[in-house]
Amino acid sequence: MSQITMAEALAVRAAINRLMNQLMSERLNNSSTIIEKGETAEYPARSVDAITEEIEAAAADYRKLDLLMAISNTTQTISWNGSDMTIMEAIELAKQMRSDIGQLAHLGSRKKLERQSGRGSGDGAVTLFNVALYDPEAYQAQARKKEREVTRLSSLIEHANHTSMITFDASKYME
Hints:
Shape: flat
Number of helices: 4
Strand content: 5-15%
Radius of gyration: 28 Å
Distance between the termini: 15 Å
Number of strands: 6
Strand order of the largest sheet: 1-6
């Protein structure tokens, strides 16, 4: 059986998913036809049963490939901040970092002191201010630093995906 890289496996899994969606659409299209009373139904070239078999075969390949990818992601490691981490952990860490970056960037874009709408009217009017209880510039710097870190982590994951091999016959889905 042939081997493919994890990077190729990602593309093959997406191709299998697209194929299954196309086959399901074809199966629905081929499942019935409208005729007038007394006419004979014209059957499509491919039967619903034949298409169903193709869907089942593609789904089995998808599950097998997905399992092989999960096994690879839990056994292959990268070095990050002085220790080894599985690819699965690294992917989750990258997701968490990106989420944190979004909030840090938002906090970093706020002003230290911002006038809010006033409360009351006339002589009793009070001007309100929204005061940041942190240093926005420091948070903006943290967001930029973390963005560089997650870019490096993503690069390590990508490199691992191009060097990690799994055994899977992808000939039905790629040349």
